[in-house]
Every structure is written in structure tokens, then in C-alpha cells.
Design brief:
alpha+beta, NADH Oxidase, 2 domains, 238 residues, four-stranded antiparallel beta sheet
Length: 238
């Protein structure tokens, strides 16, 4: 099985709502759950809990609790992520109960989505559901709260790439605002930060091939010098 590069895995992940009527092997479910387990948690409390739902009647109940999103019950497997919030509340007070537990479960959910994609599976993060009804369906105790429902299976659709904002519309440097704090060109910032390192490599390359007296050596030297000129020009324009 081919393993994706991390960025490729993030780039190709999609929210899938149509699944093939094919069972998911338990060893793959185990890998997905282990990915969720490896997520970070506040104070390493590991307050997330995972319930794997495969029973058809329970899947139907979960779908109905999720505001009648009936497509959910068609997934071969449903993973419900819960938080046991008592520890977080004891250690961190209200902030632990109301924020850290959500962050911990969200980190686990993202790990699960990425691992599923890496394994050739499909999933969707569902956050719209009636908590009380879901807890009733699954027999959840009052010291645990559901945070996410993740239907899991083999995809039976190929959604298009969703529209995205430009990264530069979402990133600020040091302060909030369109004036001064907004990043206008991510690549320029990267080149600026790495310019000294790039220049060092260029200088070493020029030294290595200079005097070689070959067309290949001359080509490398000229290319390196051109890149040096571009870096200096970009630095002047900053």
C-alpha cells in the first residue's frame, strides 16, 4: 500500500457522503483509531474516547440524532468521538471543560480523517447533531459528551476540489489588519528568510565548478549568478 506524503494527504482529503456497500477491514479501522489516539491533548489527559458503531439499528439511530442526515447510516462504520470532561474540568476548570476537550477531540478527528485518506478510505466530519439524543441512542454516561461523528467507508463519489480563499487572505504577521500585518506574498517571505542559505549554496556551487573549463560548468556558474542577481534584486525591492 502506497503511503502518501503528509501534504498530499491533506491536499487530497475530501468530505465523502456516499459510500460503497463494502465492509471496512477491522485492521484498517484499528489503524484509523490509533491515529486518533496519537493526537495531542491538554496536559496529556487523553480525554477523548472513541465508539465504533457497526450495528445497522444503531447507525440509523445515530443518523436520526444527527438531525436526520440519513446518508450517515449508509456508511459501513461510524466512529463517534466523545470527551470525558471531568479530568479537564478538575485540572483546568471551565476552560478545560469547554475548550480543551473540544480541541483535543478535534485534533483526534483530524488525525482520523487524514489516516483514513492515507489508507484509501473515505470519511466526513459531522458536527451537527442532538447531543442528548445521540447519548441516548448509544447509552453514553453523563460524564461524557459527543464531539464529532465520523462516517467511514470506501468512497462512492468524487467531489470536486472545494473553493478556497487565498492563503494570503487568512494570514497576518505580528498583528491583525490589512495594513502592515497582512502577508502579500508568501513565496517572497519564504525566499527572504531562506535567501542567506540559498546564497551560501550558490557560492559553494560557483566555487566548485569555476575553472572547470566545461560547457556544463559554465552553464551552472551562469545559472547560479543569475539566481544571485534575482535574490539581490528581490532584497532591494523589499
Amino acid at each position: 500500500m502506497k503511503v502518501m506524503e503528509t501534504f498530499e494527504c491533506m491536499l487530497t482529503r475530501r468530505s465523502i457522503r456516499k459510500f460503497k456497500d463494502v465492509e471496512v477491514e477491522w485492521y484498517l479501522i484499528g489503524k484509523v483509531l490509533n491515529a486518533g489516539f496519537l493526537a495531542p491533548s491538554a496536559g496529556n489527559l487523553q480525554d477523548f474516547r472513541f465508539m465504533v458503531v457497526t450495528d445497522p439499528n444503531l447507525k440509523k439511530g445515530v443518523a436520526q440524532a444527527a438531525l436526520d442526515q440519513l446518508w450517515i447510516e449508509k456508511a459501513p462504520v461510524i466512529i463517534v468521538i466523545f470527551s470525558e470532561f471531568t479530568k479537564a474540568k478538575r485540572f483546568y476548570g471551565i476552560r478545560g471543560e469547554r475548550l480543551y476537550t473540544i480541541q483535543d477531540c478535534a485534533a483526534a478527528a483530524q488525525n482520523i480523517l487524514l489516516e483514513a485518506n492515507d489508507l484509501g478510505l473515505a470519511a466526513c466530519w459531522v458536527g451537527a447533531f442532538d447531543e442528548d439524543r445521540l447519548c441516548s441512542v448509544l447509552g453514553i454516561p453523563d460524564y461524557a459528551r459527543p464531539k464529532a461523528i465520523i462516517p467511514l467507508g470506501y468512497s462512492d463519489e468524487q467531489p470536486p476540489v472545494p473553493a478556497k480563499f487565498k492563503l494570503t487572505d487568512l494570514v497576518f504577521i505580528n498583528r491583525w489588519g490589512d495594513n502592515g500585518g497582512k502577508v502579500l506574498d508568501i513565496s517572497a517571505e519564504v525566499i527572504k528568510d531562506w535567501a542567506p542559505h540559498v546564497q551560501k549554496v550558490i557560492d559553494g556551487t560557483i566555487k566548485a565548478v569555476s575553472g572547470a573549463g566545461t560547457k556544463f560548468g559554465d552553464a551552472i556558474t551562469n545559472g547560479a549568478k543569475n539566481l544571485t542577481g534575482k535574490l539581490k534584486s528581490r532584497k532591494k525591492n523589499k
